[in-house]
Amino acid sequence: MQTSVSGRYLLHLPSHSRPAPLLAGFHGYGQRAEDELKLLCAIPGSESWLCCSIEALHPVYTEKGSTGASWMTSRDRDRRIEENVRYVNAVVERIRALYAVNTTLCFHGFSQGAGMAWRSGLLGTYAATALMVLGGDIPPELSLNGCRSSVHLARGSRDRFYKEEAYERDKARLHAESVPFVTTLFSGAHKATAAYFQAAGEFLDTISGS
Length: 210
Hints:
single chain; alpha/beta; two-stranded antiparallel sheet
């Protein structure tokens, strides 16, 4: 049985009045939109983008007892994927209707949100110019055939959630499908560091004028 559920997203407007590229981000498990928006705004150069942080539809309690959100679990996986992609489509559509944005669209995902970045970019209504994924793998069910989005794939060297084997497997998949990509392996664990932000800013600069 279907019912309606309210979604939530946060925006940080660009520092200029011209039509801006759109940088839409997805947080990790147990986080909130505020966490991802903070990450997006810390990327050098993001001030010229319209930054949007989309919060997952499913509330959860974290181990510390605080409230956060989750994108999905393995239960009813295909249905949740369809609902989430439809949700992202609706957010992007609303932003395009209300704000001056150009055709450049980049999806950013951290941890569990990395899967959402991939699904939104490959299955969504709005084609992604680029995908930026940190600490999360490519969903195994997705086909990369025909993907022409530029990809920035990043991992901390001590990340125990996005392990080295998964990182190498994702690199091999991208290479096999001739997807244009760059990688960043930085010293750190399962979180963004100064080295990550520097690399992310350099990548963002290459697509901001697309």
